[in-house]
Amino acid sequence: MSDATIWALTLLAQRSNWNRLGDRFSGQALRWDLSDAVGLVLLVAGFALGFWLLSRLGKLQENWSRKDRPRSPFSELIRAHGLSRRDRFHCRQVADELGLADPAEVFVRPDKAREALATRDADLARRLFG
So where does this one cross the membrane (predicted)? Predict the structure, then answer.
């Protein structure tokens, strides 16, 4: 006998097992045990917990991506003006000294920052504010 014939006969011999596979779930053979109920409840609870965790993770990522980052505009302005690390340090010191909420305000509020920056580095104040 060929392998295909043996495989076909094996499959046909298993047909009764395939027919009986659904017997427990229909007709008079339908049984519902406590273990089935517990399993179903645990399965539903697991799916609910998984969806809840995914929604929380999504909200956390959404909040993180929308979070205002006050140092990011400051860093971009430092790069745009081609300032060195020392210049960056002086600008940050001036922002802290003036109590600015966002260090980038040093660049957009020259009225406050010019004098404080000039005491630290007159050349930097001249380059930034003219």
Answer: 39-57
Distance CA 2, CA 80 (A): 77
Q: What is the DSSP string of 29-94?
A: G----HHHHHHHHHHHHHHHHHHHHHHHHHHHHHHHHH---THHHHHHHHHHHT--HHHHHHHHHH
pLDDT (tens digit, 9 = 90+) per residue, 46-67? 999 999 999 999 888 877 765 5
Cα–Cα distances in Å, from 57 out to 1, 43, 47, 52, 128? 58, 21, 15, 9, 43
List Cβ neighbours of 96 (8 Å cut-off, separation of 6 or more). 103
Instruction: Look up the pTM and report it.
Output: 0.45
What are the structural domain ranges in the chain?
A: 1-27, 32-66, 71-129
